[in-house]
Amino acid sequence: MEKLDVLYTVNNKYIDVMLASILSLIENGNIDYLRLHIITSEFTKDDYNKLEAYLTKLNIEYYFYDINKFNIEKYHLPEWRNTQVSNARLFFQSIMGYNLDNITNLLYLDADTLVVDSLKGLKEYNNNPINASIESVQRAHYIRTKITPYYNSGVLYFNVLKWINANLEDKIIRYLENRTDNLVFPDQDTLNFAINDDITKLPLNYNLLAVDRFLTSWFRKIYFDTYGHNTKSEEIQKAELNPVILHSTSLFEIKPWDSKIHPDNELFTKYLNMVNPEFKSDDLTGWQKFFSQNPILLKSLIVAHSFTPKTIQPLARKLAVKVTKR
Q: Using the 8-state DSSP alphabet, how is residue 144 labeled?
């Protein structure tokens, strides 16, 4: 790929994680010229200095956009993990402004993604306003939203001009002004409720979630079989043969750098150590530690959650506490 513009959104707690993703992008993306656009939240001057120094060392052109300078609160979107920065991807058009003038295609990546192969195949999707992969937790999301297909927002590929000409940001804003839906996953739910029909399906190997690879055999068939007409298990098997972007989502709050049970632990730790040899992972809580030591139980917990998402996690916590107290 001759040139690629890539967008990230990040708060000051995930700088090292994002830089690990960027390193994987440079190492494996097969991009001749990379330009980064980073929407920031809660950054201090030292945070900006740290990021600038690292990106300058990598010889990358970059632009920062402070979310606080964009009044995202006016859309009354719920925060995700005490920040609005993850919602910013929905409004990249307004936030990036004139910097979009020289951009044809824009790739959005969550900070917890790892690029593991060439991105040249994205050229097949250059002419669609927005491209996204189908979300893994299809059953749980369908029960809640009645939307199918329901797309994951961790990897999005835009044709900027067609996005603008289709007025998709305005369509999102109109939805938010009149919404009656409960937004559990604010940006992702909004994307699906507001513009689901405008999204082109991106192959799963461009957004292969951790849960896709953690579950195996019959666990997958139970977890991904949405009312008897989902072929997600077969799609995962195909994507695993040629992964391009790994989306290292948590397994019930167990992050890839926190435990070896996570399928991306070794790879993510490698890039994190390249960024910051002193990086320290979070200590697992008692119930997280219990399930990280019992992979079969963790897989069972994930499958059960797809049927009863509102109740299974509190029950799992109680079970872990009882067992560990024995």
A: H
